[in-house]
Amino acid sequence: MQRLTQATNFAIATLWVDVLRAQGIAASVQRQYLGGVAGELPPDQCLPEVWVHEAPQFERAQQVLADWRNPPQHRWFCGCGELVEGGFEQCWNCGLHMPAN
Asked: How confident is the model at residue 72 (pLDDT cuts 50, 70, 90)?
């Protein structure tokens, strides 16, 4: 097993593990119960961690998680003249949907 990353909380760690498992990568959350001892131990050592079970899957797991955490952003001009950026598929100004590519 190899540690992939730390998460800010158990819910995020579980979400990331679910994303990895959906891609066929064996992963699990470790240290999920250490939050209660933060203060007795350094807080950064009490965060939940995502671990990949099989070393050959580690690089793919890094890429899957990076792609999921940084989705591509759309940028398009609406018919009303507004520039729509980010993940929005509908113009905030007039309500027109993003045109199909």
From this structure: confident
